[in-house]
Amino acid sequence: MNAQPILFNQGNYNPAGVSKVFYAFKEDFASMPVLPDPSAALTFASLVQYDEAVVMAVGKFLHPLYCTLETGQIKSTMVGPRDGKGFENSIEISFPGNEAEFLGFQAASAGRELIFFVIEKNKKVRVLGDLLDPAAPDTGEGDSGKAIADGRKTVLTFKASSCTPAPIYALPLTTLLKPAA
Predict the structure, then answer these.
(1) Looking at the whole model, is its pTM more than 0.90?
(2) What are the extents of the domains in the chain?
């Protein structure tokens, strides 16, 4: 791959934050595309962008996972020694209160492998985890708050290791979501 210009168009809409989070357990996926090896890639974008469809197992689909607005975050952190760099990709979500469904999700996901699709406020869809290295729970903390202004919440972080930052899913999510009734 040859060097390529890396530009940012001034005035582009570039808001921070997460709009929506979807997840499914690893076994709910029939197949996922594989990103190319850096030595075989033709463009920088091809290293981190899924242009082929993810396929769910029969009868399976992505599920929404509520996250309080302006509290969710997807992060990619470069880690490792000089000649062995990789990325720790993570998502942090904050759920208000202590609803049984969410606490049950927290308990059930504690030992499970998951894959997340995260819609950022700029409308890009990022993927956390894949079939070879799915996301797993990293930390979780619930807090009742002390005063009314504190709020009550549970914050969960899921992490997946990868050779790239969390990739972009370039296709519409509609085929991965449950059809409207």
Answers:
(1) yes
(2) 18-176
